[in-house]
Amino acid sequence: MAEPNADKVARKREYDRQWYLKNRNQVLEQQRQYQAANPDRRRRWYLRNRELALERSRVWRTENYDRVKEYRRQYYLKNREKLKAGQRWHRHGLRDSDWAAMWNAQDGRCYLSDGALDADETDVDHDHSCCGTDKSCPVCRRGLAHTLCNVAIGAIGDDPDTLRRVADALERAKADVAQRMRQRGEQTVLF
């Protein structure tokens, strides 16, 4: 009676595994020699099959979304300082020494609010009329600022007059609310 196909496949797989374990070093050495003799083999294949490779990559990333997300998160956590330094260089042309000099010149304080800066929540503020929104140069750089301070002045269009009006209105509103709260506390409820 013939053996079921699944048994044959399992026995063949086990035979191949045992053979590989015995000949592992020889197999790896042959692979190293082949790769040394054909260093651009993968690049040539990629150039011939670029669309197929890109599609396979897209499909794999879609099917393994959580895995990719976790890998990126771990990579960011492991390389946080390096990535931030690269972004400062790319966007603002600042090396680590330039960043440290700006930090020291401002004594680690926001140039807008004079509050203590946290290196993780600090932006390089610059005038957008010079280099645009994503870049800066030594001419348009204004200083280091809290992220929220930087967002606030950007939201009002870098207009000091508007900022003054907003600050005055906020002071009036806060005073009104404080007065209403005091009055509410003075009221007694009689039933």
Question: How is this structure best described in words?
Answer:
The protein has 191 residues and is mainly alpha-helical. Among the domains are: 50-92, no CATH class; 95-184, His-Me finger endonuclease fold. The protein has helices at residues 5-37, 41-48, 50-63, 65-78, 80-92, 96-105, 128-131, 147-155, 160-186; strands spanning 122-126, 141-146. The protein is elongated. The N and C termini lie far apart (98 Å). The model has no long low-confidence stretch (mean pLDDT 91).
Characteristics:
191 residues, mainly alpha, His-Me finger endonuclease fold, 2 strands
Topology readout:
Blueprint: H1 5-37, H2 41-48, H3 50-63, H4 65-78, H5 80-92, H6 96-105, E1 122-126, H7 128-131, E2 141-146, H8 147-155, H9 160-186
Antiparallel strand pairs: 1-2
